[in-house]
């Protein structure tokens, strides 16, 4: 008998998915033992990255119950088809279930082979977003009315029990074997402070979906808030936003200001003029001919565009004063800015404000990560000491330094510098754009897609991890379309870099 090769968990991809708020998905057709082990290990790694290890034992049980039930449901469809029985007919269902368990156990490989041939799958999806963990098991066999009723009867019945032992002694149901498992699963969830309300079963688009939604533990959430608050205090120690740029932005915001006065104010600062023209003439803006004056720049990019570019330059200048290795972060920021502007220009042509705001929002989306990267070691040590004194795990502190919660930190920085709400909100919601305020939702989606594309190009994110609802905004429905856009943007970006 051949020894099955162990599937290794890619921890980096798990971390990327958590930080970006995107789903992790694993699909299997026959659920061999090594795949079951792999799913458990991915769940364990996922929970460990969120400092939710106390849930692992209980959720592993729940996961094994759900994926086994999903596989069994698929096998049942194959078995009924082979027996020429209608699974949606009550009498046929009762007749088939009398022999289902014994027949399939005696020749399980035969039925699993037919299952795979029919394309019946079991899919695990894990996602962390809005401080909530989603564990979802899907299979493409819709529940029958009686199966659905049976599950909900068991969910209702589970409320009668206070312990697993009590459930075991009072339930006697081996017709399908799933009833007791569901009750125990609800009792397991109760042990980590959840109820049957955290558990959902539904049918949608040909799939049966079983979903568990869990908030982060109160202790973890309180710890994250405390560490974030300490880092927000560090913002006070950051250099102030450059006064010359603050003055010009104040003029740009004044409806009584004359363009000639603003152009003169900018032109008087030789260094700023050079930086601004360099940015306007970069490949990101793809101007038909070079721009040589501030007056021309305003005509080409617009008042709002110039204002946003000044925010970009001011942020870069401010962070240059702070020690720390920021090269890789800024390279990523420039790439996302380039992608954002070009996506906005190509897909939001009639929405000028989105086009004008896209570059600066793309450039500054990861400002929170730059804060962590540039924090002085003494300050980091101080926060770490506070964590130790308050009993907060060092691992959680290190995860925050690595970028967890960076969107909130970045938004706090932009607010300190009195950036427009649109920039602060996009920074805050760039990993969860559909939750952004309506007025910045589409722009947040632009930045979100641009950001994910950089990871997609490194094979750290796959097509399925892009939200279909977000892609639809940009008329992207297939991976081939996404590949075409990705390739085009990457080639253009490399060209401007060379």
List the helices and strands and how they pair.
Elements (H helix, E strand, L loop, with lengths): L10 H10 L3 E5 L4 H17 L6 H27 L7 H17 L1 H10 L4 E8 L2 E8 L5 H14 L5 H7 L7 H14 L7 E6 L2 E9 L2 H17 L8 H11 L5 H9 L2 H11 L13 H8 L1 H18 L6 H21 L4 H13 L2 H8 L2 H13 L4 H8 L4 H11 L4 H9 L8 H19 L11 H6 L5 H19 L1
Antiparallel strand pairs: 1-2, 2-3, 3-5, 4-5
Please tally the helical runs, counting DSSP H or I stretches of 4 or more residues: 24
| Unreliably modeled segments | 173-178
Element order: H for helix, E for strand: HEHHHHEEHHHEEHHHHHHHHHHHHHHHH
Report the principal-axis shape: elongated
Q: Helices and strands: which structural class? A: alpha+beta
Task: Give the strand tally.
Answer: 5
* Residue share in β-strands: 5-15%
Radius of gyration: 27 Å
First-last Cα distance = 55 Å
User: Which sequence of strands runs across the widest sheet?
Assistant: 1-2-3-5-4
Mean residue pLDDT: 83
> Helical amount among residues, as a percent range?
55-70%
């Amino acid at each position: 008998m051949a020894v099955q090769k162990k599937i290794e968990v890619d921890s980096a991809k798990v971390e990327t998915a958590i930080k970006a708020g995107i789903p992790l998905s694993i699909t299997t057709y026959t659920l061999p033992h090594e795949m079951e082990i792999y799913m458990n290990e991915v769940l364990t790694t996922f929970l460990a990255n969120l400092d939710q290890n106390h849930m692992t034992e209980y959720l592993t049980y729940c996961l094994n119950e759900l994926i086994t039930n999903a596989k069994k449901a698929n096998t049942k469809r194959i078995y009924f088809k082979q027996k020429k029985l209608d699974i949606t007919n009550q009498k046929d269902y009762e007749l088939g279930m009398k022999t289902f368990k014994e027949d399939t156990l005696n020749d399980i490989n035969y039925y699993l082979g037919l299952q795979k041939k029919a394309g019946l799958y079991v899919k695990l999806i894990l996602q962390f977003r809005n401080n909530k963990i989603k564990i979802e098991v899907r299979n493409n066999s819709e529940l029958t009315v009686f199966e659905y009723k049976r599950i909900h009867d068991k969910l209702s019945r589970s409320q009668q029990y206070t312990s697993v032992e009590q459930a075991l002694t009072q339930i006697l149901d081996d017709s399908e074997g799933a009833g007791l498992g569901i009750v125990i699963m609800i009792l397991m969830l109760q042990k980590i402070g959840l109820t049957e309300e955290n558990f959902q079963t539904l049918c949608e688009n040909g799939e049966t979906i079983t979903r568990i939604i869990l908030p982060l533990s109160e202790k973890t959430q309180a710890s994250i808030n405390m560490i974030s608050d300490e880092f927000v205090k560090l913002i006070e120690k950051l250099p102030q936003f450059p006064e010359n740029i603050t003055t010009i932005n104040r003029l740009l915001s004044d409806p009584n200001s004359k363009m000639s006065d603003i152009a003169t104010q900018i032109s008087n600062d030789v260094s700023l003029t050079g930086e601004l023209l360099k940015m306007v003439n970069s490949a990101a803006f793809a101007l038909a001919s070079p721009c040589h004056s501030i007056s021309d720049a305003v005509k080409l990019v617009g008042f709002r565009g110039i204002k946003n570019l000044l925010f970009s330059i001011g942020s870069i200048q401010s962070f240059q004063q702070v020690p720390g290795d920021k090269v890789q972060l800024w390279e990523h920021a420039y790439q996302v800015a380039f992608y954002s502007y070009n996506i906005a220009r190509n897909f939001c042509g009639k929405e000028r404000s989105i086009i004008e705001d896209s570059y600066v929002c793309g450039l500054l989306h990861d400002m929170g990560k730059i804060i962590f990267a540039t924090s002085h070691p003494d300050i980091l040590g101080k926060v770490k000491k506070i964590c130790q004194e308050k009993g907060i795990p060092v691992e959680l502190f290190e995860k925050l330094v690595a970028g967890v919660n960076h969107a909130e930190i970045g938004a706090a920085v932009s607010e300190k510098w009195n950036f427009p709400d649109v920039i602060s909100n996009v920074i805050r919601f760039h990993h969860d754009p559909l939750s952004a305020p309506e007025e910045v939702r589409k722009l947040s989606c632009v930045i979100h897609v641009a950001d994910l594309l950089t990871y997609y190009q490194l094979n750290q994110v796959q097509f399925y991890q892009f939200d279909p609802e977000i892609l639809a905004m940009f008329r992207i429905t297939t991976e081939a379309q996404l590949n075409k856009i990705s390739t085009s943007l990457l080639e253009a970006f490399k060209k401007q870099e060379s």
